[in-house]
Backbone:
């Protein structure tokens, strides 16, 4: 009972693309969150000048 192994390359590239897209979306979301958290404080500091 031999099992044929198919090369995983086509599936790996799809996985890499999904991971790359998820990483990019995660980074963008974290940047927006950090900007939103620090946004009002910076605006108040600029008004004081």
Residues:
């Amino acid at each position: 009972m031999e099992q044929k192994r198919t090369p995983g390359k086509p599936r790996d590239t799809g996985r890499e693309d999904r991971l790359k897209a998820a990483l990019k979306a995660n980074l963008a979301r974290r940047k927006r969150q950090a900007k939103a958290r620090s946004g009002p404080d910076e605006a108040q500091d600029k008004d004081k000048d």
Observations:
- DSSP finds one helix and no strands in the chain.
- The first helix runs from residue 9 to 48.
- The chain has a mean pLDDT of 81.
- Residues 26 and 43 are 26 Å apart (CA to CA).
